[in-house]
Design goal:
Strand order of the largest sheet of chain B: 1-2
Distance between the termini of chain B: 34 Å
Chains: A alpha+beta, B mainly alpha, C alpha/beta, D alpha/beta
Shape of chain D: elongated
Strand order of the largest sheet of chain D: 1-2-5-4-3
CATH architecture of chain D: 2-Layer Sandwich
Largest sheet of chain D: 5 strands, mixed
Number of domains of chain D: 1
Strand content of chain B: under 5%
Number of strands of chain B: 2
Order of helices and strands of chain B: HHHHEEHHHHHHHHHHH
Number of helices of chain B: 15
CATH class of chain D: Alpha Beta
Number of strands of chain D: 7
Helix content of chain B: 55-70%
Structural class of chain D: alpha/beta
Oligomer: heterotetramer
Structural class of chain B: mainly alpha
Strand content of chain D: 25-35%
Number of helices of chain D: 4
Helix content of chain D: 10-25%
Distance between the termini of chain D: 61 Å
Chain lengths: 375, 352, 179, 160
């Protein structure tokens, strides 16, 4: 790996060139402000400035009751909005020991895997866009729009779906939900070879990502990275395997772990994860158990005082919810341990010594969502 | 065509006045040609990019979005020309004009058709390459004068890129000039009467054509080499601070340079306005001669234009060190070896 | 030249007459032409802060395709953009940055407030301590698009409304310099 | 599956009170020997807590409760380390030398609760603007109409 550099921070000499990859920048996918200290084109030091999209969701949840704060979480990581809501509902169900019917569990897992697919598709399109190839962006949105159509028919909205409710799902799935999902999965499997032709086998893309942004296993663990970023460096940390929730104990899928730890490894891990998500969907789509889609939960949820912890595997890593309740209908304190927050910490060790072009490639491979960092 | 205008002018004015009016008319013709071609190529680029990306491209403005490019140009004219406060005022305002005039200059020796050539100088190709290499001064000026860190980085990158790719472009041109024996544009085209250089010059001409294509794409700051205004890395590169008409000039200059390079390519490799003749099939050759020569010329120009647009919407972007490594470690040595082989072949006379 | 606006019954457009009484009808033609050029080539600035940016990307994608209107040239630098689509929440820390971005844009500039967060603060209106409740407090806004996030068709509808608004505007407003 | 490290913990740290925090094994540690306990947890071969998953704080009005959620990727077990700080001037040793992920967590807790972490390389307000007074996540902090007078005081309003 040509750009492994010592970890000592080089003192800045006077002709240091400081530029702000500022809040408004095409490659930051949002409002991340990085202050780079450059020596020519080489990055010497990197300092993140956050808070440009900090809306105080944790403070707001303390003044909303248990049924209301769930839908704020879909504004945090809006690409895996459904998985965030699922995590909150699981935490509340664990707090009040509610019994969730089987049908609701399977529907939730199906929707979670579909949301993961849309998130990885958008990541793939914007990786191409960051590397300068504009066309993959439009091919990524082709399947994504089909899946969003399914979300729209069942849940009513495309992006922030608000489909999960403590105790199950809001309403039953659309009659031709099963047919459409099967058709999309078949079509997406045929188009996957196009994904490889457009970017994976492209020599320029490979030359820009192989060996760039190396993250060793120890550094990933010490920086608490989770999700595809950690699995590309050899850590097995898939919550769906470690603590299966909903219907994940019923499906068999393998956790993709590679050890190279560079940008191309993270790219390959996410492409493989798309295939695994499709396996899960295919295993579940045919045997959705009949029955109730939601258990009736009385109006005001008042969980007994105490602390509750629930973790879930979103498209970008492990989302942990620490719920502290004092017996009233409003949570006393909620902490969202979001995956992007600690993955951002990995940006600095990976990009020191690299060029600005590498920084863009590394940020594309980290797949950061800034409202998930700032909350 | 030019002779017919010449007689008209001599009838009206005294000799030297006729010459002046002739030059002004020629200048006007070139400017109109450039503006029309730039607008057409903006429209072409957006439509081809759209069809490559499964979408429709501009549809609402003209019949099929035909007036879209005109709307863009006129809107840019009506925008407020901003000069940043700490910018170096004179340099900031000269840079776009320099880049544009340099790309206009290169139109002089190009032969659109046997009778339509502005100035048939005997060093045509040398003139074009030397003039088009002055464009980089305008870019560096723009980058430095706009007092913005991103544009400075963009200008440095494009300076290094254009200067280094001039070399391999020049060597590729040299092999063809060596084969055809003359530097003047009409001389090169006449030498391709019995077959285009890309067929006649077999291996060395083909290698030279590939090197010329890569090097000229890099010289235009386009496609896989568009590091100068890399949108994702340096917001808008060297023309970050330019707005309104000044930005339109950079926009226009980019497309005009694209035209010049594709015209140079067609003149050298694809036989300018020469129709396509295959050996002794005279029936086929007669049909080919029916098509007027300037249609041949513009047909070939638009084919190479399509190639540039095709590159842009498929390839991701190279990093600055890979770009320079490609030039100095790969293109230059291959170009040199190709030059040696070409000279041996022309010396032994093994050209078809 | 201070210009007086006159109304003629048989002529619907605005007629400007200067002191010497010459009515310059030609101006309405230039207005129409200038507004046609401006409304048909609105170049948006790449500025998305949160979830609405994803719906803006869908509007730019192949299915909804705002390039039919000629909007797809999204410029990265505010100098070359003449439309800023505020897609996503504007927080207090982002407000000065956003205002500077707005001031950097050259003059005929338009603002679209996309999403409930920009109209009234949206889901974060009441209990949040760091969200600007409506960006019309900071910059003059031309078109408001409600929704959280609004559908791509809603964004396209808003853009077409903006085009109609530009076509109705006077291209050259001759303001007397404030004393 | 997640094993519970109760047996090993009681054997290595006999005097520390053992409890439960959200169904996870929790030990409460006093403020001043927190650093030694954490380095021991990090280096002890049979414990090997190499990942600081999350660092949070809860404002229990009478005291500030700081929670370190540790996990060992090799042993596959979790542990919660709790400390209580008084409201007046909360201070804690920074855990950056032990776990690198602590850097961002501690900046956030400093910004939201005002807990100063001694020895932190770059302790500054992470989310709120630099000139912000007050610590938002404290129970005593009221969040209403803070936004409007911030805009007024920074001349951002349109009519100013």
């Amino acid at each position: 790996m040509e750009n492994i550099i010592g970890s000592q921070i080089i003192q800045s000499s006077d002709d240091e060139f400081i530029i702000n990859v500022g809040p408004q920048h095409p490659s930051t996918h949002g409002v991340l402000h990085l202050q780079l200290k450059l020596d020519g084109e080489k990055i010497v030091d990197l300092k993140p400035f956050l808070g440009y999209i900090h809306r105080g969701i944790e403070k707001m949840s303390e003044s909303l009751n248990y049924k209301q704060f769930i839908y704020l979480t879909s504004r945090m990581d809006y690409l895996s909005a459904h998985i965030n809501n699922q995590a909150c509902c699981l935490a509340i169900e664990k707090a009040i020991q509610a019994e969730v019917p089987e049908r609701a569990r399977v529907i939730r897992t199906l929707m979670a895997e579909l949301a993961r697919l849309t998130s990885h598709q958008l990541w793939w399109g914007s990786t191409g866009l960051d590397m300068g190839a504009v066309s993959p962006f439009f091919y990524a949105f082709r399947e994504r729009e089909m899946i969003l159509e399914i979300f729209e028919e069942t849940c009513g909205s495309r992006l922030t779906m608000n489909y999960c409710v403590p105790g199950g799902v809001m309403n039953d799935i659309h009659p031709d939900f099963v047919r459409k999902v099967k058709q999309i999965i078949k079509q997406f499997r045929d188009n996957l070879h196009e994904y490889d032709e457009l970017l994976t086998n492209n020599p320029i893309f490979q030359s820009r990502t192989i060996g760039v942004g190396y993250l060793s296993r120890e550094e990933a663990i010490s920086l608490a990275c989770t999700g595809p970023v950690a699995r590309a460096s050899g850590i097995s940390c898939d919550v769906r395997k470690k603590e299966p929730y909903d219907a994940y104990d019923r499906v068999t899928f393998d956790e993709i772990i590679t050890t190279e730890g560079d940008c191309f490894a993270r790219y390959k891990v996410r492409l493989e994860e798309m295939k695994q998500s499709m396996n899960i969907i295919e295993q579940l789509i045919d045997n959705i158990p009949a029955g109730e889609y939601r258990t009736k939960i009385k109006g005001i949820i008042k969980p007994p005082a105490g602390e509750y912890y629930q973790r879930v595997e979103t498209a970008r890593g492990e989302l942990g919810i620490y719920l502290v309740s004092d017996g009233t209908n409003k949570p006393y304190r909620i902490k969202f341990r979001t995956p992007n927050f600690s993955n951002l910490g990995a940006l600095k060790p990976m990009s020191l010594g690299g060029k600005i072009g590498d920084l863009v490639a590394i940020m594309a491979s980290l797949d950061l969502i800034i409202p998930d960092i700032d909350r | 065509m030019t002779h017919w205008i010449g007689e008209k002018l001599n009838a009206l004015f005294s000799p030297e006045w006729a010459a002046y009016v002739g030059y002004i008319l020629a200048g006007l013709a070139i400017i109109i040609l450039v503006v029309v071609m730039a607008v057409v190529s903006i429209y072409l680029e957006r439509k081809i990019a759209a069809f490559m990306q499964m979408r429709l491209g501009p549809m609402r403005v003209g019949k099929w979005g035909t007036l879209q490019a005109f709307a863009d140009v006129f809107k840019l004219m009506l925008k407020e020309p901003l000069t940043p406060a700490q910018a170096d005022k004179q340099l900031f305002n000269i840079a776009p004009y320099l880049v544009l005039t340099v790309s206009f200059l290169a139109f002089a020796p190009i032969a659109f058709s046997p009778s339509l050539q502005l100035w048939d100088m005997n060093i045509g190709v040398l003139y074009i390459t030397s003039v088009s290499s002055m464009g980089v001064i305008g870019i560096l000026m723009a980058g430095w004068a706009s007092n913005n860190k991103y544009s400075l980085l963009g200008a440095m990158r494009s300076g290094a890129q254009i200067v280094s790719y001039e070399l391999s472009a020049g060597i590729a041109i040299l092999t063809i000039v060596m084969m055809s024996g003359s530097l003047s544009v009409s001389g090169i085209i006449k030498s391709q009467a019995d077959g285009w250089w890309i067929f006649k010059g077999h291996i060395p001409a083909l290698i030279a054509f590939v090197i010329f294509a890569i090097a000229s794409t890099a010289e235009l700051n386009r496609a896989p080499f568009d590091l100068a205004e890399a949108e994702q890395e340096l917001t808008a590169g060297f023309h970050t601070e330019y707005s309104g008409m000044q930005f339109a000039m950079f926009f226009l200059a980019e497309y005009t340079n694209m035209f010049i390079v594709s015209m140079l390519g067609t003149t050298l490799f694809l036989g300018g306005w020469m129709p396509l003749h295959i050996g002794n099939w005279d029936a086929f050759n007669q049909i080919m001669d029916k098509i007027p020569p300037f249609l041949w010329f513009f047909g070939k120009v638009f084919i190479s234009l399509f190639m540039f647009i095709w590159f842009r919407w498929t390839f991701p972007r190279l990093r600055i060190d890979q770009l320079l490594k490609l030039e100095w470690k790969y293109l230059l040595p291959i170009g040199m070896v190709n030059l040696v082989i070409g000279s041996i072949i022309t010396w032994l006379g093994w050209i078809f | 030249m201070d210009v007086v606006q006159k109304h003629f019954e048989d002529f619907p457009g605005e007629v400007y007459q200067d002191k010497s009484g010459h009515s310059s009808i030609i101006i309405t033609q230039i207005d129409r032409f200038a507004n046609w050029a401006r409304s048909n080539s609105l170049w948006p600035l790449i500025f998305g802060t949160s979830c609405c940016a994803i719906e803006m990307m869908s509007a730019a994608s192949a299915k909804y395709d705002w390039s039919r209107f000629g909007f797809e040239v999204a410029r990265a630098s505010p100098r070359q953009a003449d439309l800023i689509i505020v897609a996503g929440t504007i927080t207090l820390k982002m407000a000065p940055v956003f205002k500077r971005l707005y001031d950097q844009m050259p003059d005929p500039k338009y603002v679209i407030a996309m999403g409930a967060c920009n109209i009234t603060g949206g889901p974060f209106m009441t209990h949040s301590y760091s969200v600007v409740n409506g960006i019309d407090k900071i910059v003059p806004v031309d078109v408001f698009i409600p929704g959280c996030p609004p559908r791509p068709e809603a964004l396209l509808h808003g853009m077409m409304k903006l085009q109609e608004k530009i076509k109705g505007m006077k291209a050259y407003v001759i303001e007397k310099p404030k004393k | 599956m997640q094993q519970q490290p109760e047996a090993i913990i009681t054997q290595i740290f006999p005097d520390l009170p053992l409890g439960r925090w959200a169904q996870l094994v929790a030990i409460t540690v006093k403020q001043d020997d927190l650093y030694t306990v954490c380095t021991q947890l990090r280096q002890h071969p049979s414990l090997d807590f190499d990942m600081l998953v999350c660092l949070t704080a809860v404002d229990r009005t009478t005291y500030l409760e700081v929670i370190y959620h540790l996990r060992s990727t090799s042993r596959n077990h979790d542990l919660i380390v709790k400390t209580e700080l008084n409201e007046a001037q909360p201070e804690l040793p920074s855990m950056v030398p032990v776990w690198k992920s602590a850097e961002l967590f501690e900046m956030e807790i400093y910004d939201m609760f005002g807990i100063v972490f001694k020895g932190h390389p770059d302790l500054r307000r992470l989310f709120m603007p630099e000139d912000w007074e007050g610590y938002p996540l404290r129970k005593s902090y009221n969040a209403n109409e803070v936004a409007d007078n911030y805009l007024k005081s920074h001349q951002l309003l349109i009519n100013q």
